[in-house]
Amino acid sequence: MRPSPFDPPDPRFVTTGEHPLWDEALAAVNRDLAATLPEQRPLCLVAYPGWERAPDETERVHVALANGDAHGDCLWPEPSAAGALRAVAEAAQDTVMELLWQAWPVCTLHGLGMHVTEDAGRPSWWCAGGSRPGDPAHVRAAIGEMDTVHRPRRPNRKRRKDRGPR
Ligand SMILES: [Zn+2]
Fold it and tell me: For 16, 47, 48, 79, which has the most beta carbons within 10 A of its beta carbon?
């Protein structure tokens, strides 16, 4: 049976090496995902073909959950690694927040969802801070380095890691 023209086309999984800058950026974002949501499988890139009405349009690449589901805008080619990292981090955020129904990544000091910013030339996660004076907005970590601030402080705290595969 022919699919209806109104059905969205199936995406394909993008293979490593097709978009080296996005691969590198996604690896950094996946380190943050592993540090903050260890139960999630790594994000991946999927590509949808261009629209039928504009056959010359190149395919659109999205950041997707491991199952291929994506949400939000497609990625646009970026000339720099830092630009690619910001774009991939924002796209990953859209997909995770919309499809997993949770703010991500969350600042563990303030319980707030963070935003992509640039700090000393490095794409980073920014938190709006607390409502009290003296608790200002701050940069939590460079993107890809959330594991450096996400280790539990209390040694007796239960690690989520010991949940094995089903
Ligand atoms: Zn914070």
Answer: 47
